[in-house]
UniProtKB/TrEMBL annotation:
The gene is Pomp. Belongs to the POMP/UMP1 family. One of its GO terms (cellular component) is cytoplasm. This is POMP protein. InterPro entries: Ump1 (IPR008012). It comes from Sterrhoptilus dennistouni. It holds the Pfam family UMP1. GO terms for biological process: proteasome assembly.
Length: 140
C-alpha cells in the first residue's frame, strides 16, 4: 500500500532534517561569530533560568500591580511606550545604551552589574558594518 508507506515515512522523518535550513546548513561566521559550547549547555543551576527571566517576571508583576491600582489603561499605555522605544535603535554595528528603556523601567538611577562590566569595546562579537546593514535590511 503506497499510501500507508508514505504516511510512515512522513511520520519518521521530520521536515527540518531534510530542508536546506536544517541540519545541513553551515554556520555563518561573519554574522554569528564563533560557535560556543557554553551557549548549547543546559542551565547548571535551577536559579539560572530565574535570573535570565528576571526582567520579564518583574515587568509582569509591575503590570499586574499597575492594573490593580490604576486600571487596564495604565499597563497598556506603558506597553505601547515600551514597544515604541524598542523600535528606535542605532545602526546594528553601534552599541546602544537603551537609555529610554531604562527610564521607562525606572533603572536610570541605579547602577548595576551591566553598567560596569558591559563595555562594548571589549565585546567578543564585532561585525563588518556593511554586512550587518545588508542583513538587517534583508538583502543577504
Amino acid at each position: 500500500n503506497s499510501r500507508g508507506t508514505a504516511s510512515l515515512l512522513k511520520d519518521s522523518i521530520s521536515f527540518t532534517e531534510v530542508s536546506a535550513v536544517g541540519l545541513f546548513e553551515g554556520h555563518d561566521l561573519l554574522r554569528r561569530g564563533f560557535t560556543s559550547v557554553k551557549n548549547e549547555l543546559v542551565p547548571s543551576h535551577p536559579l539560572e533560568l530565574t535570573e535570565k527571566n528576571f526582567q520579564l517576571n518583574q515587568d509582569k508583576t509591575n503590570f499586574a500591580t499597575l492594573r490593580n491600582i490604576q486600571g487596564i489603561h495604565a499597563p497598556l499605555k506603558l506597553q505601547m511606550e515600551f514597544r515604541a522605544v524598542k523600535q528606535v535603535q542605532r545602526l546594528p554595528f553601534l552599541h546602544s545604551s537603551n537609555m529610554a528603556m531604562d527610564i521607562l523601567r525606572g533603572n536610570d538611577e541605579s547602577i548595576g552589574f551591566e553598567d560596569i562590566l558591559n563595555d562594548p569595546s571589549q565585546s567578543e562579537i564585532m561585525g563588518e558594518p556593511h554586512m550587518m546593514m545588508e542583513h538587517k535590511l534583508g538583502l543577504l
